Description:
By secondary structure, the chain is of the alpha+beta class.
Amino acid sequence: MKSSWPAFLVALLLLAACGGETPTATPTATPSATASPLPPTAETTAAASPAADRTAAQVVRVIDGDTIVVVMDGLEHRVRYTGIDTPETVDPRLPVECFGREASQRNRELVEGETVELEKDVSETDQYDRLLRYVWVEGEMVNATLVGEGYAMVVTYPPDVKYQELFLELERQARAEGQGLWSACLTPTVCPPEGPICDYSGTCEPVIKGNISKTTGEKIYHVPGGEYYDKTAIDEAAGERWFCTEQETIGAGWRRSKR
Length: 259
């Protein structure tokens, strides 16, 4: 990893901080890499959103690579990092995923015991009542650092898209350089140079599930983060399909799941 973020990434962060929105896209995967220092403070601090937009909190526990516990005004809150996802390590229903422990350790190195600043996008909490936030330490955004170093993947759930373009550029760079999960855990999807970027994956890999109800025959599609997404299996022999974009899915006659 380079010693500083490229100028075009700093420009993207500046654009996002000014409130510009970006398209919808994202991923699924798992990380690996040696810990590297946070990108230099000067550039990203200059591009950061005003401190008035953030709330100070004390980190008292790191749960995994993308979830922490903080104290604000004497109360504990669980915080889920907005816009990214790291390999699973704590869900008792799932095995520890590739590079999950490394991602958790890197997150500890960045925030454990630190006073951080929390920045909200649009949503207040997720379905598990965790605060959704961008987490800043000494002018550096931890969400972006984890993506850039290959410990996290981009996972975008609209309307929380403020830094999506920055995250996607950092992920593309991490993939190109074989950082973390992109070399240790995955066989990268080879995309044509001008190929489509699929919704919810950030690559050319389609992740929208086009399901056909066995009881009604209705065509219903599920997106990552939806209540039934993980429970839905796609049977292509029965006419079910994977889709790249929601526009494509709707055009093919599917409707979005209500949950």
